[in-house]
Please model this.
Amino acid sequence: MDVYLGVDVGSVTAKFALVTGGGDVVAYNYVRTQGRPIAVIQEGLAEIRARLPAHGEIRGVCTTGSARYLAGVILGADLVKNEITTQAVGAAHYVPDVRTIIEIGGQDSKLILLRDGMVSDFAMNTICAAGTGSFLEQQAARLGLGIEGFGACALRGNGSVRIEGRCSVFAESDMIHRQQMGCTLEDVAYGLCRALVRNYFADMGPGREIEPPVVFQGGVAFNEGIVRAFEESLQTEVIVPLYHEAMGAIGAALLVCEQMSRHPESTAFAGFGVSELSYRSSSFECEACTDRCEVARLFQDEKVVAHWGGRCDLWEVDASAQA
Model:
């Protein structure tokens, strides 16, 4: 069986997906990065190997996410794509007529608009945490709730409590005030869900026409309270597709499948053995020009194997060059 590997490494989680040439997901995993992207890439690869179907062979690899270049070097990626493209491809695979994609992860969020099957506009929030999963997780902890049970608790809220959600500090102060007023835990939890949705649209909605079908993906889509708050705000159904939490990795796998079908040369995949190698990364400021780019580099057994991050290709040209 020919399969294609998509890897999405973000700041909070890493996702791996194995997809057949027909677009079926045969295996995937979803793990927390915990500030260890290299180790998690290696661990995730070892886990996905254990789930590889009998006689399955990886024919292509694509990486995406904020650590896509790092993952691409380690894995030997045939393709490296940004998150907007892979999220859109993944969503369209499950909901072909999708026109709006809401994607919320641990530390960033995205709004993607598709028209006639193509990305026509998008917005990203990578600065303010108040519209992301980390915001919910922090506030849930302050309420004494685990994030896994937060959504079910919020669903029992009646929508009567308004929480100021533009800042985590203000949200905490508002929650304490509402609880002192006698508001129930359920109402406060749902108030937080509505605050996140207001913040999301305040940051990325202005000037953009949100049209159905609307697809919601990313880890936060597990939260039923957030789904309800989006539907209430948009006054339309919000679709949470199968494998929504791994949609970037699935989209990456679909893209490399398409590329390798057009150019069936051998894959550059480095093999499962990379999970056993020793890697470390560092960065330095390039002084070759006034831009003074911060350039990242990857070592394998103390040998520099790759550079990336510069505005020019000075360092990418010679992977063995030393700073």
Summary: Confidence is low (pLDDT under 50) at residues 318-323. Residues 279-317 form one domain. The radius of gyration is 21 Å.
